[in-house]
Specification:
The complex is a heterotrimer.
Chain A lengths: L1 H7 L9 H9 L4 H8 L4 H7 L10 H30 L8 E3 L9 H16 L7 E3 L3 E5 L2 E5 L3 E4 L5 E6 L11 H22 L7 E7 L6 E7 L1 H14 L2 H6 L14 H9 L16 H10 L8 H6 L6 H7 L11 H18 L1
Parallel strand pairs in A: 1-2, 6-7
Antiparallel strand pairs in A: 2-5, 3-4, 5-6, 7-8
Helix pairs in contact in A: 2-7, 2-8, 7-8
Chain B lengths: L2 H13 L3 E2 L13 E7 L7 E7 L6 E4 L6 H23 L2 E4 L5 E4 L5 E3 L2 H14 L13 H15 L8 E3 H8 E2 L4 H4 L2 H8 L7 H7 L14 H18 L3 H26 L5 H22 L11 H25 L1 H9 L3 E10 L3 E2 L8 E2 L2 E5 L11 E4 L2 E12 L2 E6 L20 E5 L32 H5 L4
Helix pairs in contact in B: 2-4, 3-4, 5-10, 7-8, 9-10, 12-13
Chain C lengths: L1 H12 L3 H22 L11 H12 L3 E2 H12 L11 H11 L8 E2 L2 E2 L9 E4 L8 E2 L3 H19 L5 H11 L14 H33 L2 H6 L10
Parallel strand pairs in C: 3-5
Antiparallel strand pairs in C: 1-4, 2-4
Helix pairs in contact in C: 1-2, 3-4, 4-7, 6-7, 6-8
The chains are: A alpha/beta, B alpha+beta, C mainly alpha.
C-alpha cells in the first residue's frame, strides 16, 4: 500500500463510496481508473487543476428533494417504510422494531459506528434483538486492501428470513414505470451494499432483491418495489477481485510516478496521468470524472474506441482512424488478417462515393 | 447501423466535419413548426422550470415558473403554455377534408408540428401531459381549462412520436443524426450543441472545435435538465429573490440566458433540414399524421375521455405490433427514397445493385398451386455487392416498387431473379414491364408495404361512428385530486 | 364540520356514494372557509414562547417525538407557527439551564434515552415530567410511540367540536401507516384510528414495556440526574 500512498503524496485522499465502487465496475479494463481510485486520488480536484469544467456536482434542488423524501420515509419510526415492507415482504405485525445505528453512544468515529453496526447486525442475524428496520448502518468493504466505509439508507431484516438492502431514491415511479438509467444506477449502488453486507453475515443471509423506495406518480407518497441485483453482483465481484491485483498494474508503471495534486504543476499532473493507460469509451462520459481528459487524449491519438462501441466492433481489429482509412483505400498494402475487412471497407467506400456524387 | 455508417463516422472524424447520411429529407417540415424548448427542476419528475416556445425565430415566448415548488405557479405555467400551443393546434386541426375511399375518412389539411431539442424533451412533454390531462376545471383544486386540454394534446403528440416516421412531435437531435454523420459517438450526438457544431460549425472552426465549445460551462445544455452549476450559482439565488421580493425578473433573466442559445440552435437546425428536398415517403407519412390528428380532434370534440394511464394487455400488444410495422415500413421507405440510405443496406448485403446482363423474356412456368403456364421471365444482374440474400428470397426494386421478384440463383457476382407480377395479363410480359439488358437496377428484401398504399386509419383508431376504439380508461376523483408534491 | 363528517361517514357506510360525494364537496368548501378565517398574518409575534409550544404539543402527543412532528401538531392543533430550526438548539439550552439551577423549572424539554446505550436518542424531544420508562427508546418504542401518539391525537379530535381541517389531514397521514385505520383518502375517522392503533399496540406493548423497564432500571442505577435527563455519552454504560 505504500506505493499507492506515495503516488497520492501529501494531498488528502478521497474515500470511495458505493457510487464510485459501482463506477469502477462499469469499466473493469481501465488501469487509469483502477490506480487513481486505489490511490484515493481526488478526481474532481484533479480535473479542476487541469481546468476542466466540473460537471459532477448535484443540483442543490435535487439534493434537497432527496433529503426531504428520505426524511419522510423514515419519519415516525419509519412508519411509511414499515407499511411498504409489510406489503412487499408479508412482514408480520410483530416485527416492527426500529433501531437507529447512528447512535453509537456519542462516538461519531467511523470505526466505532461500524463496530456498533456489526454488533447489532450479528445479534439480529442470530435472532437476538428486535430490530426489523436498521437505520443508518455503516458497513465496511475491503477495496484493493483499503477499508472503505459504506452507508446504505436502511437495512431491513425479516425474522427467520434474510436481510434486505433498502434504497430510498427521490425519482418518481409514474404509472408503475421509472426511468431505466436511474433504476440501473440505483441497482448498481445497492449491489455494492449487498456485497458488503454479505461479507459480514454470509451470502445466504442477504437477499439479492433490494427494495427500492420512490415517490409514486407526482406525489410525495412513498411506494416500493423489489429490484433483482444478481447481475450487478456478479459484475461487481469480478471487478473487485481484479482490483486485488492492483500490484500487477503498479509494476507496469514508472517507478517514481506521483500524482500529488498539491505539489505538482498542471503540466506535470497531465504527464503523470498520461503515464497510466486508460481505456476510454463514450460510456465513460456518464460514469467517470476523468472522462473528458481521457476523451481528448483518445481523439488526439485517433483511437477508434472513442467513436463508440458500434464502430469499434464493426472495424474490429483496427486501432486508429488513420489506419482504418488507409485500409479502406484501394492499392494500400494490408496485413493478411485485415484482408477481409479491407475488401469490405473498400466496397463501402466506393458505395458511399457513388451515392453522394 | 451498418458498416457504411461506421466508415462514414471514421471519415467524418478525419475530415473534422459531419458528412451526409441522406440525400433527401426523410421528415416532413411544417411551414410553421412550433419550437418548444422546456426546462425542468432538477430532482423532480414533472416540475416545469421554464420554456421557450413559438413559431417565429425572432420572437420566442418565454415562460417561467419563478418558484417551481409552488403548485399553483406550475399550473399557471401549463395554462400559459396552453395559451401558446392550443390556439396553434386548434387553428390547424380544425381545417379538415374528407378523403373518398371505400370508407371515407377525415384528414386535416395540415397538422401541428412540435419540435423539441432531444428525446428527453419528448419524454418531458409526455410527463407534463400525464400530470395535467386528468385535472379538473371545477371544484376543489380547479385549474384553467387549458391545462387538461394541453395535457391531452401533449400526451397524444408524445405517443405519436413513438411511431417511426411520424413528424408531429420530433426531437431535433434525432432528425439531425438521421441526416448527417458526425465524427463523435452517439452519446455525444445526443447533445444538440455538439451535434450542430459538427454539422454546421461557425466560420473558421472545425467540427470538433465547435463541438468542444458545447462542453464549455458557458454553453447551456439543451434541456430538459439544467447544469447543476447553473442551479447552484444562478437559479437558486434568483428563486430566493422571487421568494423575498415577489419579482420574477431574475428568474426570467437566468432562464432566458439558458434557453436562448438552444432556441437559436433549433432554428439553425431547422434551416439546415429545410435546405434538403423532402422525400416522397415523408410526404405520405405526413398525410397519415394528418389523419391521426383529425381522429384525435374528433375524439376530443365528441366528448371523448382523456387517454388512460396504462394500456390494457390487448391494447399494449396491438400497439407494439403497430410500432413494429411502422418501424419496418419507415426503414424500407427511407431506403427506397434515397440511394445513400440504400447504400447502407447494400453494404450489409441485404440489397444489391448492378447492371442487367441477361434477360429471358420467354420463360413460362406453372407456378406452385397453379394450373396453367404463366410468364415468369428471368433477369440476371451483375453486381459487386456482397449479397447475403438466399435463393427463394422475395425482393423488390426502388425503381419498380409495385413489382415483386424472387431470387432464383446466386453465382459469383451474378444474381438471377424471377419477375413475379406487374407484367400485364397477356401471354407475354407487357412492353417495358421487365428490366432490359443494360439497365442499372437495385433489388432488396426491404418492403415498404403499407406506406405505399393509401393511408387508411389503422383499425385500432376506427372512428366511434363505426363502433369506435376499445373502451377507454375512465378517470376517477382520485386522478383529479392526485396531489402534487 | 364535525356534523358534516359524521354525515359523510354515515352516507359512505350506507353505500350512498352520490350523497357522500356531495357532502364531501360541501366539507371541502367549509374547510376552505375555515382555513381562510384561521389564517393569521405571518408577521404576528408568537403569543407563546417556543418551549411552551413544544411542551403543549408533547403533552398532547404523550411520547418522545421528532421536531418535524412537534411543529406539525403545534400548527394543526394549536394554530401555532414554529420553524424546525427553532427547535434545533432547544435541548442543549435546556440542559444548560438545568445544570446551572437543577430543578428550578417545573419542567424541562429533555432527551429520550436509547435502551441499549442510554445515550440521547437522535432528534427526539421528551418531557422531564414523564416517568423514565416513557423516555426510553427500545427497538419497538418508535412504533409504539407512533401508535400512542396517533391514538391521543384521535382522542383529542373526538373531544373537540371545532377542529381545523389541518388536524384531520395530519391524522389522515398517520392513519395511512396504521393497518386498518384508513385508506389515505378523505378525512380520517378518529374512532377507526383509535381502534386500529390500539389493536397493533396490543401486539407490541408487552415486549416494549419490558425493554423500557429494564433500561430504565439500568439508568436509575448508573446515571446521575443530569444524564438521566439528557443522556449519557459514556460508552462504558453499555449493557452486556
Amino acid at each position: 500500500m505504500n506505493r499507492l500512498d506515495a503516488i497520492r503524496g501529501g494531498t488528502p485522499g478521497q474515500d470511495h463510496n458505493a457510487r464510485s465502487i459501482a463506477a469502477l465496475a462499469a469499466n473493469p479494463a481501465c488501469d487509469r481508473r483502477a490506480v487513481l481510485d486505489a490511490a484515493a486520488i481526488d478526481k474532481p480536484r484533479l480535473m479542476r487543476r487541469l481546468r476542466f469544467d466540473d460537471r459532477w456536482g448535484q443540483s442543490p434542488f435535487a439534493i434537497q428533494r432527496n433529503q426531504q423524501f428520505t426524511d419522510l420515509v423514515k419519519a415516525n419510526g419509519a412508519a411509511h417504510l414499515l407499511r411498504l415492507l409489510r406489503t412487499l415482504l408479508d412482514l408480520p405485525i410483530e416485527e416492527a422494531g426500529y433501531v437507529n445505528l447512528e447512535d453509537a453512544g456519542g462516538n461519531e468515529g467511523q470505526v466505532a459506528r461500524h463496530g456498533h453496526t456489526r454488533r447489532v447486525i450479528r445479534q439480529t442475524a442470530e435472532g437476538r434483538g428486535r430490530a426489523t428496520i436498521l437505520d443508518r448502518p455503516l458497513l465496511r468493504l475491503d477495496v484493493a486492501g483499503a477499508q472503505v466505509y459504506l452507508e446504505p439508507d436502511v437495512i431491513a431484516f425479516q425474522l427467520g428470513g434474510v436481510f434486505h438492502i433498502v434504497a430510498i431514491k427521490s425519482f418518481a415511479i409514474v404509472d408503475d414505470q421509472a426511468d431505466t438509467p436511474k433504476v440501473s444506477a440505483a441497482a448498481r449502488e445497492a449491489a455494492v451494499y449487498v456485497h458488503a453486507l454479505r461479507e459480514l453475515v454470509g451470502r445466504d443471509l442477504v437477499s439479492h432483491d433490494v427494495i427500492l423506495v420512490c415517490p409514486r406518480d407526482f406525489t410525495n407518497e412513498p411506494t416500493a418495489t423489489t429490484v433483482d441485483v444478481r447481475h450487478q453482483l456478479v459484475t461487481l465481484a469480478r471487478q473487485l477481485s481484479r482490483l486485488t491485483r492492483i500490484d500487477t498494474i503498479l509494476d507496469r508503471l514508472p517507478e517514481n510516478l506521483s500524482l500529488d495534486l498539491d505539489a505538482l504543476s498542471p503540466a506535470q499532473i497531465e504527464a503523470a496521468v498520461a503515464a497510466v493507460p486508460a481505456r476510454y469509451a463514450p460510456q465513460c462520459l456518464s460514469a467517470c470524472e476523468l472522462s473528458h481528459l481521457c476523451r481528448r487524449e483518445a481523439h488526439d491519438l485517433g483511437h477508434l474506441d472513442a467513436l463508440g462501441r458500434v464502430v469499434r466492433d464493426d472495424l474490429g481489429g483496427i486501432e486508429s482512424v488513420r489506419a482504418a482509412l488507409r485500409v479502406a483505400t484501394p492499392g494500400e498494402p494490408v496485413a493478411d488478417d485485415q484482408a477481409e475487412i479491407a475488401e469490405r471497407l473498400r466496397h463501402v467506400a466506393r458505395l458511399y462515393d457513388e451515392a453522394v456524387a | 447501423m451498418s458498416l457504411l455508417h461506421s466508415y462514414v463516422k471514421v471519415k467524418a472524424r478525419e475530415r473534422g466535419r459531419a458528412l451526409p447520411r441522406a440525400t433527401v429529407r426523410h421528415v416532413h417540415l411544417a411551414e410553421a413548426p412550433m419550437v418548444f424548448v422546456p426546462l425542468r427542476l432538477a430532482g423532480e419528475a414533472a416540475a416545469p422550470l421554464g420554456a421557450m416556445v413559438g413559431t417565429d425565430p425572432r420572437r420566442p415566448t418565454l415562460l417561467v415558473v419563478p418558484q417551481p415548488r409552488n403548485r399553483d405557479l406550475r399550473f399557471q405555467f401549463l395554462a400559459d403554455l396552453g395559451a401558446v400551443l392550443l390556439p396553434y393546434i386548434d387553428r390547424i386541426s380544425r381545417q379538415v377534408e374528407t378523403v373518398e375511399a371505400k370508407t371515407p375518412f377525415e384528414r386535416c389539411l395540415d397538422a401541428p408540428q412540435i419540435v423539441v431539442p432531444s428525446p428527453g424533451g419528448v419524454e418531458f412533454a409526455a410527463k407534463l401531459g400525464r400530470s395535467s390531462r386528468f385535472r379538473r376545471t371545477t371544484g376543489p383544486y380547479a385549474v384553467d381549462p387549458a391545462v387538461p386540454m394541453l395535457g391531452r394534446w401533449l400526451t397524444f403528440l408524445a405517443e405519436q412520436s413513438e411511431f417511426a416516421g411520424s413528424s408531429l412531435m420530433v426531437a431535433m437531435t434525432d432528425l439531425l443524426t438521421a441526416h448527417w454523420v458526425t465524427g463523435q459517438s452517439a452519446v455525444e450526438d445526443a447533445d444538440l450543441a455538439a451535434l450542430l457544431g459538427w454539422i454546421d460549425p461557425p466560420e473558421g472552426l472545425t467540427g470538433p472545435e465547435a463541438a468542444a465549445l458545447a462542453d464549455d460551462p458557458l454553453t447551456p445544455p439543451a434541456g430538459p435538465d439544467t447544469h447543476p452549476e447553473f442551479d447552484r450559482q444562478e437559479l437558486q439565488k434568483a428563486i430566493e429573490h422571487y421568494d423575498v421580493t415577489g419579482s420574477a425578473t431574475q428568474v426570467e433573466e437566468a432562464l432566458h440566458g439558458q434557453l436562448r442559445p438552444t432556441w437559436d440552435r433549433m432554428w439553425q437546425a431547422i434551416g439546415l433540414l429545410a435546405a434538403l428536398k423532402e422525400s416522397p415517403g415523408a410526404t405520405t407519412r405526413w398525410e397519415r399524421d394528418r389523419v391521426h390528428v383529425a381522429l384525435h380532434r374528433a375524439w376530443i370534440d365528441g366528448g371523448g375521455l382523456p387517454q388512460g394511464k396504462r394500456d390494457s394487455a390487448v391494447a399494449a400488444a396491438k400497439r407494439l405490433a403497430r410500432l413494429e410495422a411502422a418501424q419496418q415500413s419507415f426503414e424500407a421507405t427511407r431506403a427506397f427514397d434515397d440511394p445513400l440510405v440504400m447504400a447502407e443496406y447494400r453494404a450489409d448485403g441485404v440489397a444489391f445493385a448492378g447492371e442487367v446482363v441477361a434477360v429471358d423474356l420467354t420463360r413460362r412456368i406453372v407456378p406452385p398451386g397453379g394450373k396453367r403456364e404463366v410468364p415468369r421471365p428471368l433477369v440476371t444482374i451483375e453486381t459487386s455487392d456482397p449479397v447475403r440474400l438466399a435463393k427463394g428470397k422475395k425482393v423488390r426494386s426502388p425503381s419498380r416498387p409495385r413489382q415483386s421478384a424472387t431470387i432464383t440463383s446466386l453465382a459469383d457476382r451474378m444474381v438471377t431473379v424471377q419477375i413475379d407480377d406487374g407484367m400485364g395479363r397477356g401471354s407475354q410480359p407487357a412492353e417495358g414491364s421487365v428490366p432490359g439488358v443494360g439497365t442499372v437496377i437495385c433489388y432488396t428484401e426491404l418492403d415498404p408495404g403499407e406506406s405505399r398504399r393509401a393511408p387508411l386509419p389503422p383499425r385500432e383508431e376506427t372512428p366511434w361512428t363505426h363502433g369506435g376504439p376499445p373502451p377507454d380508461y375512465v378517470p376517477t376523483d382520485d386522478d383529479a385530486a392526485e396531489p402534487w408534491s | 364540520m364535525g356534523k358534516l363528517r359524521k354525515a359523510i361517514r354515515q352516507a359512505t357506510a350506507a353505500g350512498r356514494h352520490a350523497e357522500a360525494r356531495a357532502l364531501r364537496a360541501r366539507l371541502r368548501e367549509a374547510e376552505r372557509q375555515w382555513d381562510a378565517e384561521v389564517e393569521q398574518p405571518a408577521t404576528q409575534p408568537p403569543l407563546v414562547p417556543v418551549r411552551e409550544q413544544v411542551h403543549r404539543a408533547l403533552t398532547l402527543l404523550g411520547a418522545p417525538t421528532a421536531a418535524r412532528m412537534i411543529v406539525a401538531v403545534d400548527e394543526s392543533f394549536f394554530g401555532g407557527q414554529m420553524a424546525n430550526t427553532q427547535l434545533t438548539s432547544l435541548r442543549r439550552d435546556e440542559e444548560k439551564s438545568y445544570r446551572s439551577a437543577p430543578g428550578a423549572r417545573p419542567y424541562y424539554l429533555c432527551a429520550a434515552l436509547t435502551s441499549e446505550l442510554l445515550s440521547p436518542a437522535r432528534g427526539l424531544l421528551a418531557l422531564s415530567t414523564w416517568a423514565l420508562p416513557q423516555r426510553i427508546i427500545g427497538p419497538l418504542s418508535p412504533r409504539t410511540d407512533f401508535l400512542t401518539s396517533a391514538v391521543r391525537l384521535a382522542e383529542h379530535l373526538m373531544r373537540l367540536d371545532d377542529v381545523s381541517p389541518g388536524a384531520f389531514r395530519l391524522l389522515g397521514q398517520l392513519a395511512q401507516n396504521i393497518p386498518g385505520a384508513g385508506d389515505g383518502f378523505g378525512p380520517a375517522d378518529p374512532a377507526k384510528v383509535i381502534a386500529a392503533a390500539g389493536a397493533e399496540l396490543a401486539v407490541h406493548q408487552e415486549r416494549d414495556q419490558m425493554d423500557r423497564r429494564e433500561a430504565a432500571a439500568r439508568a436509575t442505577d448508573r446515571l446521575g440526574p443530569v444524564e438521566r435527563l439528557f443522556g449519557s455519552g459514556i460508552r462504558t454504560v453499555r449493557s452486556a
